[in-house]
Write a structure and sequence with these properties.
This protein is an alpha+beta fold and 206 residues long. It is built from two helices and ten strands, in the order ααββββββββββ. 15% of the residues are buried. The N terminus is likely disordered.
Length: 206
């Protein structure tokens, strides 16, 4: 009988220790409730685009351009045409997106494409990515506007071949912009490829 009492006391003590170790059901329920409240009350801070993106604001809007192209004979040679581009904020303001389209000419079909502009907060450079309806792909970087000009150095694929280009964007006024594109014909040698005189039709700062 004494042994049974002793064994019963040992079992009771073990259960008490176990309950203390893992907590009582009511305590566990309280902890879970507190955890839910803590999780429910916590939220991610709102995403904020880098302030450098404000430098693109003046480019937002709908643009119409008169274009001149200096192409090799097999691509139609010298020609002129019209194009349009609409630029606006995208992806919560982290990117600007431009949708452009050129009119069909005697030697060139209608073309359209998309360009994204943003800011790389790691490398501290402005970046761009473009693609079009001919399968061309372009990636570029810029140090940003200097004396009213953006200079973009670009690498990509044009008509199935690697290409390197340089685009200079000059905003002469809030509603007038010039775009000059050069292509590297050989290492270090740049030749004009096209000029666009653009006027804003509608839209203001993004």
């Amino acid at each position: 009988m004494h042994c049974r009492k002793q064994d019963l006391m040992k079992v009771t003590a073990a259960l008490a220790a176990l309950a203390f170790a893992i907590g009582s059901p009511s305590a566990l329920a309280g902890e879970k409730s507190d955890a839910k409240k803590s999780t429910a009350g916590a939220s991610m801070p709102p995403a904020t685009p880098p302030p450098e993106m404000a430098k693109f604001n003046s480019m937002a809007g709908a643009w119409k351009c008169m274009s001149k192209m200096h192409l090799p004979p097999e691509m139609g040679g010298e020609q002129s045409g019209k194009s349009t581009m609409t630029i606006k904020k995208d992806m919560n303001g982290y990117w600007m997106v431009g949708q452009w389209k050129t009119e069909k000419t005697k030697t060139m079909p209608e073309m359209k494409g998309t360009i994204y502009w943003g800011y790389d907060t790691v490398d501290k450079k402005f970046v761009e990515v473009g693609l079009d309806s001919t399968g061309s792909l372009m990636r570029g970087t810029s140090e940003g506007p200097q004396d009213g000009k953006w200079v973009w150095t670009e690498d990509g694929v044009m008509l199935g071949k690697k290409s390197k280009s340089r685009t200079t964007v000059t905003q002469k006024s809030p509603n007038v912009t010039e775009v000059n594109t050069e292509i590297e014909s050989e290492p270090g040698k740049w030749v004009p490829m096209g000029e666009d005189d653009c006027k804003k039709q509608s839209g203001g700062s993004a």
